Here is the input.
Amino acid sequence: TLPGVEYQGFTADTNGSVAMTVTAPSVRAAAEQLVAWRTTEGVTAVDLSGMATTVDDLGVIRGVHFDIRMTMDPQLFFVSAAPAVTTPTAPAS
Here is the structure.
């Protein structure tokens, strides 16, 4: 996650679908975050919708809000057991 990008909600399922509501400080930051997600290993699709900006009295964009839906490799949601630690044994004499 890039600096200034925040999440207001998160849902996921074991099939690899993730949905989030996101706030970024600018349209540029939102676009950079989108590129970051799309180039992340294990992410197979990223769709953005509902983009809206917050504009101050001078017309300066002060924030961007949007919804994102990602599809990830479902294996990213599973925890594997830690490898067993084996203690070497001394050879029999």
Summary: The CA atoms of residues 16 and 74 lie 4 Å apart. The two ends are 57 Å apart (CA to CA). Helices lie at 27-38.
